Amino acid sequence: MAEEKRTKLYLHLKKWMEIAARDYDMLSEGDRVLVGVSGGRDSMALLDLLNTPMVFLPSFSVMAVHIDPGFDESYKGYDILEKYLKDNAYNYVMDKTDIGPLAHSDYNRKNPCFLCSRLRRKRIFEIAGEYGCNKIAFAHHKDDIIETLLINMFYAREISTMVPSQAIFKGKYHIIRLFAYIREGLIKKYARERGFPVVKDGCPTAKVSKRRYIKKVLDELEKENKDIRENIFKSMRHVKTDYLLKRNS
């Protein structure tokens, strides 16, 4: 391993990534892990860290997959990302699609993010099957888990969130989120430290999403209570079901 990676931040992220993996039994000997790489800092950091020696985890192989949503023909992120993956000798799949324009078309204006996410995941599952990958790693972090809880409460009228490890298709695949214990700010800091290439998000609704709104709400609340996010995260492990609304049988 290159010595430049052995910073305090690198060691901190590796520690909590491995703790999450062990707590939720995310990885087993011989797993083939498909890493979703959007080109954003979070997914670049996940790919980078998964391709370094593990201390407490079994051996596994890693392949990166990038689903190009096809928002704009002049969008250069695809070429930037492919050059980075090739230069760093990663195993990877680059898949060009029209998912973005389709999800934002006239007949689907009300919920473009839902359809875009669904179609991208469908394609990722197909690629996982083609390459024999049984684990699919996404770079969702602690902040994403907290925000998803509030998004589902505010807009879906349910109490639920992302889980660190999730079996799908009757256990054929497992979605794993190794950054479940790590705050977004630390991941962004690591990305800057490592100097990953900057790939712009071509999504036309990225700046007005429900997630961005929830993030702003939490930022405002943290001005008065710096523990807001941490308290919400911990509350998901302290659910008092006797004090939730339920109908009499």
Quick gist of this model?
The chain contains 9 helices and 6 strands; from the N terminus they run αβαβαβααβαββααα.
SSE inventory with pairings:
Layout: H1 8-23, E1 31-36, H2 41-50, E2 60-68, H3 77-87, E3 92-96, H4 99-103, H5 112-130, E4 135-137, H6 142-155, E5 165-168, E6 173-176, H7 184-194, H8 210-222, H9 228-235
Parallel strand pairs: 1-2, 1-4, 2-3, 4-6
Antiparallel strand pairs: 5-6
Helix pairs in contact: 2-7, 6-8
Structural summary, described in words:
The protein is of the alpha/beta class and 249 residues long. It has one domain: Rossmann fold, CATH 3.40.50.620. The protein has helices at 8-23, 41-50, 77-87, 99-103, 112-130, 142-155, 184-194, 210-222, 228-235, and strands at residues 31-36, 60-68, 92-96, 135-137, 165-168, 173-176. It has a six-stranded mixed beta sheet with strand order 3-2-1-4-6-5, sandwiched between helices. Helix 2 (41-50) crosses helix 7 (184-194) and helix 6 (142-155) packs across helix 8 (210-222).
Short descriptors:
single chain; 249 residues; alpha/beta; Rossmann fold; six-stranded mixed sheet; 6 strands
The proportion of strand residues reads 5-15%
What's the assembly state of these chains? single chain
Q: What structural class do you assign from the helix and strand content?
A: alpha/beta
CATH superfamily: HUPs
Shape: globular
Using the CA coordinates, give the radius of gyration. 19 Å
What is the correct CATH architecture?
3-Layer(aba) Sandwich
Uncertain regions spanning at least 5 consecutive residues: none
Number of helices: 9
Order of helices and strands, N to C? HEHEHEHHEHEEHHH
Work out the count of structural domains: 1
Mean pLDDT: 90
End-to-end C-alpha gap: 59 Å
User: Care to count the β-strands?
Assistant: 6
Roughly how much helix do the residues carry, as a percent range? 40-55%
Largest sheet: 6 strands, mixed
Major beta sheet, strand line-up: 3-2-1-4-6-5
Q: Which fold name corresponds to the CATH topology?
A: Rossmann fold
What's the level 1 CATH class?
A: Alpha Beta
